[in-house]
Amino acid sequence: MGPVTSYSTAAVDSVLVFIVAVSMVFLLGLTIAMVVFVVRYGRRRHPRPEEVRQSIALEVTWTLIPTVLVLAMFFYGYAGFTLIRSPPADAMVINVLGRMWDWSFEYENGKQSDLLRVPVGEPVRLALHSADVLHSFFVPSFRIKEDVVPGQENFLWFKPEGLGTADVFCAEYCGTEHAFMMSTIEVMEEAAFEEWYATLDRLEDHPAYQVMDDVGCFFCHTVDGTIEGGPTFKGLFGKARRVVRDGEEVEVMVDRDYLRRSILDPAAEVAVDWDADMPEDAAEDLTAEQLEEVLDFLEIVR
Description:
The chain is an alpha+beta fold and 302 residues long. Helix content is 34%, strand content 25%. A 5-stranded mixed beta sheet has the order 4-3-2-6-9, with no helix packed on it. The chain has a 5-stranded mixed beta sheet with strand order 5-12-11-7-8, covered by helices on one side. The protein has a 3-stranded antiparallel beta sheet with strand order 14-13-15, with helices on one face.
């Protein structure tokens, strides 16, 4: 996979092309005018200088043209600036921590990485924080750069287009190892990203893990596939299973609704080949928020 670009790349490049094109036209025009004036009004053809009187029209013209061009550059550039400073409301939020001399990334589900993985075509908002000194988060191929300031949160956003990788640098001198403060953005297919995102590096880091441990879930259930007193949580979510409901065997999909029912009323739908020995008051001490966190946890145990 090669370097990838972002939604903002074309916007920034178009402003640069516009400014360079205008500059080249002026350079060419002025160079031609200088050559013409040197040839036409040289001493050989005009040994005696002539008085040149003022021209209001000419002065207005050479004042208005640069003014209009400068204003066009400003508004064109400001439109691009507004784009890269206006992240969509539904953008994925990832916390970025810069420290001497590396970058680390934390996702909304608590997953942490030193490599920034994102899904292709999805907007991403980076919340920038510094643990020590001033840094600058710079992605050349995305044409984005933002200071990372100690004691405050800054942000930038991008929407990657195409699969591949993009280099990340620190663009602010931050000490002796500044040149090695690099990372990579890996743009992945959405399905591959979701699979990676759903797998925590350490399940124990999930906010629901301690809650489940406190109420005794792990006395009977495991997260590594081994079987003890009850079904393992590993790979449970998203599978079909046979249960007994109202004395009749039926097939259900293990989704959030089924898991919620199983926690709140364990005896209502008992998995075939398992005894109904889960305490009926297992969820008694769980708040509504904690219950949702438990369901989030069960959804990502693969």
